[in-house]
Amino acid sequence: MDSNRIEELLQKYWNGETSLEDEQQLHVYFQSDDIPEHLKETALLFRYFETQKNTSLQDVMFDSGITNTLTAGKTRKLVYNSLRIAAGLAVLIAAIWFVRKEPPHPITKSAVAVDTYNDPKLAFEETKKALMMISNSFAKAEEQAKRINLFNEAQQEVKPQKR
User: Fold this and answer.
1) What is the C-alpha separation between 149 and 76, in angstroms, rounded?
2) What is the pLDDT of residue 78?
3) What's the distance, CA 78 to chain centroid?
4) Strand, coil or helix: what is 8?
5) Which residues of the chain fall below pLDDT 70?
6) Backbone phi, then psi, for 162, in 5-degree steps?
7) How far apart are CA 98 and CA 153, in angstroms?
């Protein structure tokens, strides 16, 4: 087949404008061994499509134990992610509560709080330090949670499957 015709069909194919006959021509063309070098990767793609079309459902059936294990893993991951979100929300709510909490007595001009800074750059640096400390704590907690999750996954794999 003419290489210009193949290029034209491929352009239509990538744009989603080919007919079934056009696609059949491409499939037939890419099954041959005489493919130009610049179309070798495209030929691999079309050959993959062809092998997948010929694969029967029986070839891709999974053992129910594997399927159940994968489903349990997804459930654990969902619970783990939900707990992470809930913990993050709890920290956020606690922070808002502490920030918005009224002081027990009004601050007068004579009473200067210890954590007040007159220099905005110094205040910014101290805030960065505090946020980095919190960030490091969260990173350590996440690392520990990953270890627990890894242990749980290993434990599930070691448990005998019920049939």
Assistant:
1) 8
2) 73
3) 12
4) helix
5) 1, 55-74, 102-115, 160-163
6) -85, 135
7) 38
pTM: 0.35
Q: How many alpha carbons lie under 13 Å from residue 60 in its C-beta half-sphere?
A: 7
Amino acid identity for residue 44 in this structure = L
Length of the chain: 163
Phi, psi of 108 (to 5 degrees): -100, 170
> Which residues are CB-contacts of 25 (< 8 A; sequence separation ≥ 6)?
1, 9
Contacts of 22-30 with C-beta under 8 Å, sequence gap 24+, read 25/1, 29/1
- Which residues, at least 6 apart from 126, have a Cβ–Cβ distance to it below 8 Å? 117
What DSSP state is assigned to residue 33? S
Give the pLDDT score at 36. Answer: 86
Q: What is the DSSP string of 100-145?
A: HPPPSSPPPSS---TT--S-HHHHHHHHHHHHHHHHHHHHHHHHHH
- By CB neighbour count within 10 A (0-12 exposed, 13-18 middle, 19+ buried), where does 23 fall? middle
